[in-house]
């Protein structure tokens, strides 16, 4: 199955209650066979309206971090979320909602086959790296999971709330850049 075919299937998903509130399902965006994949939490208001991930204020900051290390969703990165429909009032997605939605993410992984996965924020890091993941303590650390490197970093929304974390987050993106070079990944 291609990513486009998976997206068509995903768009009619009604596996959990989040489907009831969606304007658009946010499947993902970016290079279809990207070596670098980013996983956020879930769509917010702007994302729900536009059907694309990270298009609000957080997304603008994320795009700036990416650009500073020669990455972009137009060129060499694929961006998706733990859940594909907006949780009401932007609450955290519930474990049972993530349990349903992770099936789609697994299929995306299988097709895209990223070499590096950056978990953007606590929600995806706790689900994909370690259930006790602490962003403040473990950000920027690469963990090899069956040949794919996973790393967790600050969510841009957390940086907008507390700009003191900006430098640390920038350091994490520099580490991604170094890892790309170390692995000889062409971007
Ligand atoms: N926050 C996320 O985690 N994902 C988005 O797509 C937008 C905001």
What's the arrangement of secondary structure elements?
Blueprint: H1 3-10, E1 29-30, E2 36-40, H2 45-50, H3 57-68, E3 77-81, H4 95-112, E4 116-120, H5 122-128, H6 135-138, E5 142-145, E6 148-153, H7 156-161, H8 166-182
Parallel strand pairs: 2-3, 2-4, 4-6
Antiparallel strand pairs: 1-3, 5-6
Please describe what this structure looks like.
The structure is a single chain. The chain is an alpha/beta fold and 187 residues long. The chain is built from 8 helices and 6 strands; from the N terminus they run αββααβαβααββαα. A 6-stranded mixed sheet has the order 1-3-2-4-6-5. The protein is globular and about 40 Å long. It starts with a helix and ends in a 5-residue tail after the last helix. Uracil (URA) binds next to helix 3.
Short description:
Helix content is 42%, strand content 14%. It is built from eight helices and six strands. It has helices spanning 3-10, 45-50, 57-68, 95-112, 122-128, 135-138, 156-161, 166-182; strands at 29-30, 36-40, 77-81, 116-120, 142-145, 148-153.
Short key terms for the protein model shown above:
6 strands, six-stranded mixed β-sheet, 187 residues, single chain, alpha/beta, binds uracil
Q: Major β-sheet, in short? A: 6 strands, mixed
- Measured as a percent range, the helix fraction is 40-55%
Bound heterogens, unique: uracil
What is the general shape?
Answer: globular
């Amino acid at each position: 199955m291609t990513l486009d075919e998976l997206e068509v299937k995903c768009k009619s998903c009604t596996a959990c209650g989040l489907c009831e509130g969606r304007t658009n399902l946010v499947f993902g965006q970016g290079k279809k066979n990207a070596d670098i994949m980013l996983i956020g939490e879930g769509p917010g208001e702007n994302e729900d309206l536009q059907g694309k991930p990270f298009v609000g204020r957080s997304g603008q900051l994320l795009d700036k971090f990416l650009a500073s290390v020669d990455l972009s969703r137009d060129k060499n990165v694929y961006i998706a979320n733990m859940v594909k429909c907006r949780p009401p009032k932007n609450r955290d997605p519930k474990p049972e909602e993530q349990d349903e939605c992770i099936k789609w993410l697994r299929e995306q992984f299988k097709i895209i086959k990223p070499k590096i996965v950056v978990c953007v924020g606590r929600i995806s890091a706790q689900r994909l790296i370690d259930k006790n993941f602490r962003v403040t303590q473990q950000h920027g650390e690469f963990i090899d999971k069956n040949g794919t490197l996973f790393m967790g970093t600050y969510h841009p929304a957390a940086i907008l709330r507390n700009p003191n974390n900006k430098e640390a987050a920038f350091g994490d993106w520099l580490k991604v850049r170094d890892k790309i070079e170390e692995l000889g990944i062409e971007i």
